[in-house]
């Protein structure tokens, strides 16, 4: 919902008040509305990181497209990786509504000035990783992103609606792949358990640092950009995943994991926060490779961008000529 039409725009001295009232009423802020600088910067930071994560996130699974074990699995994986590209594009468009420039955001990613999710810096040595990424990583993404459909910034919230529908399909395809492998040979079951062991803790880290070490959470929640804290969403993910693991027949690698009747939630161990910080700072197992591939793809695609720009200029010139005739 647009909060301000030009006709009813508040006088400059009341802009902040009007913004605060819009947030308090749970209405949306739209691109043409006045917003505080901090709100705009926070959104550009989060949306750009989110877009970069979708684009870099194509790599770990993309590595299996040529090696998928059947034509069906190849087609599914192709479609999923293509969806991630689409998510990145919607999100870059949402960032553009805030005045960000897409080319600049890409430069910031490949120069290491902007972040992307830590999870995509882990390797995918077996095909079971494709299933576990769908189950855990897309599952974590759903927990994190469904509340973002109610984010206070309109274009971000609307982009999330379609993204979440697709993530939901991704999660189910991952789980179905793992179910199939679990019905297979002992070696296949071992591959699944090994992938679960490697991805569990990094998946919990996707939700960010614990609340008492999350510098951005309080402000983002006051602005209703984020609707829940990092720890709340992490707990939601654990509670959702434990029964799914039992049904699948795998063990989650956490000896402290147990149901707490009093809290009505599962208790679980503490992720290695030093590891998260190392990976965020660029020192994860695959950070260098991910950025190097992204940079190479960007450079190799320069001719496409140049051709598209030249084509658009030609079309515009033709349009002008047509209008003059
Ligand atoms: N990795 O104050 P905090 C997908 C940074 S892709 C890296 O808690 P905030 C998919 C954080 O940015 C979906 N960095 O921050 C794709 C901040 O740094 P700056 C990806 C992290 O923003 C392909 C600092 O640490 N999802 O689903 O309040 C295939 C302090 O953190 C991480 C999104 O992007 C991390 N894990 O909360 C399959 C969701 N955690 O910027 C699947 C949207 C924290 O101050 N983003 N940092 O230098 C969010 O919800 C929030 O930005 C976060 C962090 C929960 C991630």
Give an account of the 3D structure:
This protein is mainly α and about 325 residues long. Helix content is about 65%, strand content about 0%. It has helices at about 15-25, 35-55, 60, 70-95, 100-110, 130-145, 155-180, 185-205, 215-220, 230-250, 275-280, 285-300, 300-325, and strands spanning about 260, 265. A two-stranded antiparallel ribbon has the order 1-2. It is globular. The two termini are about 40 Å apart. The relative contact order is 0.10. The model has no long low-confidence stretch (mean pLDDT about 95). Bound molecules: benzoyl coenzyme A. Benzoyl coenzyme A binds next to helix 2, helix 6 and helix 9.
Characteristics:
13 helices, binds benzoyl coenzyme A, two-stranded antiparallel sheet, 325 residues, globular, mainly alpha
Short structural description:
The protein is mostly helical and 325 residues long.
Write the layout of secondary structure elements.
Layout (H helix, E strand, L loop, with lengths): L14 H10 L12 H20 L1 H5 L8 H26 L5 H9 L17 H18 L8 H29 L3 H20 L11 H6 L7 H19 L9 E3 L4 E3 L5 H8 L6 H14 L1 H23 L1
């Amino acid at each position: 919902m647009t909060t301000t039409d030009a006709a009813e725009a508040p006088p400059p001295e009341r802009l902040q008040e009007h913004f605060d009232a819009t947030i308090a009423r749970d209405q949306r802020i739209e691109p043409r509305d006045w917003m505080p600088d901090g709100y705009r910067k926070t959104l550009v930071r989060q949306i750009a990181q989110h877009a970069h994560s979708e684009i870099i996130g194509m790599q770990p699974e993309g590595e299996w497209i040529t090696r998928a074990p059947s034509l069906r699995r190849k087609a599914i994986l192709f479609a999923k990786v293509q969806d991630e590209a689409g998510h990145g594009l919607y999100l870059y468009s949402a960032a553009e509504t805030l005045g960000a420039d897409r080319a600049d955001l890409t430069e910031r990613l490949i120069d290491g000035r902007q972040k992307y999710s830590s999870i995509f810096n882990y390797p995918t040595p077996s095909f079971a990783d494709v299933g576990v990424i769908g189950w855990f990583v897309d599952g974590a993404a759903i927990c994190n992103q469904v509340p973002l459909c109610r984010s206070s910034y309109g274009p971000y919230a609307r982009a999330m609606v379609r993204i979440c529908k697709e993530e939901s399909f991704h999660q189910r395809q991952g789980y179905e792949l793992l179910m199939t492998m679990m019905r297979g040979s002992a070696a296949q079951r071992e591959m699944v358990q090994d992938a679960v062991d490697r991805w569990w803790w990094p998946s919990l880290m996707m939700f960010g640092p614990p609340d008492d070490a999350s510098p951005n959470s309080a402000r983002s929640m006051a602005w209703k950009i984020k609707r829940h804290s990092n720890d709340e969403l992490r707990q939601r993910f654990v509670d959702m995943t434990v029964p799914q693991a039992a049904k699948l027949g795998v063990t989650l690698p956490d000896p402290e994991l147990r149901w707490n009747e009093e809290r009505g939630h599962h208790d679980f161990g503490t992720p290695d926060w030093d590891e998260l910080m190392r990976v965020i700072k660029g020192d994860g197992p695959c950070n260098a490779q991910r950025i190097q591939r992204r940079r190479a793809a960007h450079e190799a695609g320069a001719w496409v961008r140049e051709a598209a720009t030249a084509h658009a200029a030609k079309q515009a010139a033709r349009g002008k000529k047509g209008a003059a005739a």
